């Protein structure tokens, strides 16, 4: 067993399946001898690393670590570190106590009365606290305390009274008074405070010395501790391996998954290391669907002629086929597995797409045989985000923030978020160029595009009255994007369901596609005046109601007959055909038939966020630069001159200036300029942050809720082969 474990561990190929105890005559194995001692040492090493603050940067060169070195050096390091750590804890406790006494002493320094004068009287009671002296005096005057005197300084009050201590305390209940404990010590509180400050400095010096000594130990032993942890972790991993095996008195069975293209290398290496005492049995080469059922399989001849129906599954990537190693074969020719038939999954996405895998895993890891939505996520989410923000300036900042996160942190998840941020920033810049905006200003539209021979930016966000038709255009295109996105999701589901048969695919997935296209083709055919005009107008020009000159004459209505005066379109029949197919597949799902309508409407949030963020950026710039309006309905920022200047001039680029919307803080004096700069910077930072929380979250919601829900279930396990990738140690 130990030879086999060593060989399999070195190969780092086999994803081991844990035995579930279901076989008669087989029991789960026991840890190898010495595993508990190894685990104890591993706990010790990790504790020492935590105390010393050891990090990967402290590793140094790789090294060979022997058992004798761990046995001898670990005990020495443990003794030194624990002694220093105990000393550090003691000094810290003393330092905290002194700091508490210093904080307690501060009010008494303010009061300025010697500490020995605040205690030790036979006939006087003394209380010290913080409160309103006038209120305290009034309360005492109305109480049973006949003789008292107050000493006060900056809200600290000392009350001397010829009364019982409890009676004095009861009398002060009605006043705003917070009692303070009189500290130990005699004489001037200022001198006593100086002694405490000096004691604090001494303790801080001691603490610094201890921490310096611990730091020296870290520098001396960090490489050893990291290497020892790795060696012990490997030994613990090997020692606990039999817990996953099925064992008898004289034999054991290990089962697991391995990529098919690596089987021959696995078999050759393991046989060479262990010899004929281990039987390596390949049961089946197969492909599996998302439910874990075999789509196709190739039975493998096994010694002894055992046939039967193989059972098992496969690793997803890098090859679509894989095998299970080895399995228990029974007399009747069947195969009994260890209980967990779900194959592990390797996601094999291109490097640029990798950051999006973590966002997919927020929902779940794909199951084997299931479409991995990572690439689709990569193709759509940055585009959605960029469309909603669409600004070169914000895009540059998102790109820089993403790069900073990707390059500066060690966490794989944060690195992935940084990668997603870079992609989102790039698409934000791309759409910003198309909209001609940088931080909400139209500089690119007014300067860059004309310099390239164009009249202005190709598109507009639709916030200004002059370009109002674009707002309707973006809303409509958001619907079209939603239709396409959902259609792709249901198409993925259709392909997956083909594994169960064409009829299942048509009724369970094709039904939704028919309903989707039938309903929205009816909408866009102009039924009841529902279609947007710009889709059906070949004329160019914004004021013709056509921001996008598609030259599209629209879908025909194809009305077949009327029911109660309501025309029934052929498109509606397509919708109802899909509804019937859905009812044949699962009548319960019929109650959700309106999903084809409301899910598509959900994508209008793309245009809504686009207009909202454009409006916020516009308001920030309006407050700083000011805005004037021309007779063509366009708004212009007062960047080079105050808006009032253009109103006096009367004409701007051939158009009459009709009004000043706001004069702008920039043009209202020094105080206005300073306040305006604050508004400008904080305002754009707010838009930047809200871009993440609105555009980012809305885009993710469309992916998770609308898109993934059509085909993605998840629940896969990561392919985690039995082995260890060495970082700090070497066998050479």
UniProtKB/TrEMBL annotation:
The UniProt record lists the keyword Signal: no
Stretches that traverse the bilayer: 375-401, 421-449, 470-492, 512-531, 568-585, 606-629, 670-692
Topology of this chain in the membrane: Multi-pass membrane protein
Chief location category: membrane
Localization per Swiss-Prot or TrEMBL: Membrane
GO biological process: vacuolar acidification
Keyword set, alphabetical order: Coiled coil, Ion transport, Membrane, Transmembrane, Transmembrane helix, Transport
Any GO molecular function: proton-transporting ATPase activity, rotational mechanism
Keyword Coiled coil among UniProt keywords: yes
Listed GO CC annotations: proton-transporting V-type ATPase, V0 domain; vacuolar proton-transporting V-type ATPase complex
Coiled-coil positions: 67-101, 193-220
Region of interest (Disordered), ranges: 289-337
Protein family membership: Belongs to the V-ATPase 116 kDa subunit family.
Function description: Component of the A-type ATP synthase that produces ATP from ADP in the presence of a proton gradient across the membrane.
Identification of the protein by name: A-type ATP synthase subunit I
């Amino acid at each position: 067993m130990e030879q086999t474990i060593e060989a399999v561990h070195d190969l780092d190929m086999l994803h081991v399946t844990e035995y579930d105890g279901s076989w008669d005559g087989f029991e789960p194995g026991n840890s190898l001898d010495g595993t508990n001692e190894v685990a104890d040492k591993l706990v010790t090493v990790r504790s020492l690393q935590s105390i010393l603050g050891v990090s990967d940067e402290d590793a140094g060169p790789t090294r060979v670590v022997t058992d004798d070195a761990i046995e001898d050096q670990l005990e020495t390091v443990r003794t030194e570190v624990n002694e220093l750590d105990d000393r550090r804890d003691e000094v810290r406790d003393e330092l905290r106590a002194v700091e508490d006494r210093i904080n307690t002493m501060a009010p008494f320094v303010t009061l300025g009365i010697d500490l020995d004068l605040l205690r030790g009287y036979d006939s006087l009671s003394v209380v010290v606290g913080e409160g309103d002296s006038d209120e305290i005096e009034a309360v005492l005057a109305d109480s049973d305390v006949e003789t008292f005197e107050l000493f006060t300084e900056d809200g600290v009050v000392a009350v001397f009274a010829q009364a019982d201590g409890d009676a004095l305390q009861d009398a002060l209940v009605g006043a705003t008074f917070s009692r303070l404990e009189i500290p130990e010590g005699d004489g001037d509180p200022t001198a006593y405070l100086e002694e405490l400050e000096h004691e604090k400095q001494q303790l801080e010096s001691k603490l610094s010395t201890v921490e310096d000594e611990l730091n020296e130990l870290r520098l001396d032993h960090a490489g050893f501790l990291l290497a020892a942890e790795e060696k012990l972790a490997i030994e613990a991993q090997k020692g606990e391996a039999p817990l996953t095996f099925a064992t008898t008195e004289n034999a054991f069975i290990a089962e697991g998954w391995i990529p098919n293209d690596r089987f021959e290398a696995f078999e050759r290496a393991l046989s060479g290391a262990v010899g004929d005492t281990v039987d390596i049995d390949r049961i089946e080469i197969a492909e599996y669907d998302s439910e874990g059922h075999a789509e196709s399989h190739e039975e493998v001849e096994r010694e002894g002629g055992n046939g039967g129906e193989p059972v098992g599954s496969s690793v997803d990537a890098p090859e679509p086929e894989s095998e299970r190693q080895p399995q228990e074969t029974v007399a009747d020719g069947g195969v009994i597995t260890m209980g967990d038939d779900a194959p592990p999954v390797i996601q094999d996405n291109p490097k640029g797409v990798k950051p999006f895998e973590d966002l997919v895993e927020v929902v779940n890891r794909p199951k084997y045989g299931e479409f991995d939505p990572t690439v689709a996520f990569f193709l759509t989410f940055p585009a959605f985000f960029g469309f909603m923000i669409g600004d070169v300036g914000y895009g540059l900042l998102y790109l820089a923030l993403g790069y900073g996160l990707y390059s500066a942190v060690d966490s794989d998840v944060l690195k992935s978020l940084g990668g997603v941020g870079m992609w989102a920033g790039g698409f934000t810049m791309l759409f910003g160029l198309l909209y001609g905006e940088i931080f909400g200003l139209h500089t690119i539209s007014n300067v860059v595009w004309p310099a390239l021979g164009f009249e202005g930016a190709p598109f507009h966000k639709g916030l200004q009255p002059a370009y109002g038709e674009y707002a309707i255009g973006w809303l409509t295109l958001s619907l079209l994007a939603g239709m396409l996105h959902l259609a792709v999701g249901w198409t993925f589901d259709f392909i997956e369901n083909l594994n169960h048969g064409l009829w299942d695919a048509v009724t369970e997935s094709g039904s939704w596609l028919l309903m989707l296209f039938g309903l929205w083709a009816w909408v866009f055919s102009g039924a009841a005046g529902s279609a947007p005009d710009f889709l059906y107008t070949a004329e160019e020009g914004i004021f013709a109601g056509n921001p996008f000159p598609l030259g599209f004459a629209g879908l025909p209505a194809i009305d077949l007959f009327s029911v109660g005066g309501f025309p029934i379109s052929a498109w509606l029949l397509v919708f109802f055909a899909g509804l019937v197919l859905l009812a044949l597949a699962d009548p319960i799902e019929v109650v959700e038939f309106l999903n084809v309508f409301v899910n598509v409407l959900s994508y209008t949030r793309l245009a809504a966020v686009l207009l909202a963020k454009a409006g916020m950026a516009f308001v920030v710039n309006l407050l700083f630069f000011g805005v004037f309006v021309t007779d063509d309905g366009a708004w212009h920022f007062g960047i080079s001159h105050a808006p009032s200047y253009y109103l006096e001039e009367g004409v701007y680029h051939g158009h009459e200036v009709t009004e000043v919307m706001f004069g702008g803080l920039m043009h209202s004096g020094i105080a206005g300029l300073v306040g305006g700069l604050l508004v400008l910077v904080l305002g754009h930072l707010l838009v930047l942050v809200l871009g993440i929380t609105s555009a980012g979250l809305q885009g993710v919601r469309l992916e998770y809720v609308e898109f993934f829900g059509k085909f993605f279930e998840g629940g896969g396990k990561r392919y985690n082969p039995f082995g260890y990738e060495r970082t700090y140690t070497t066998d050479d």
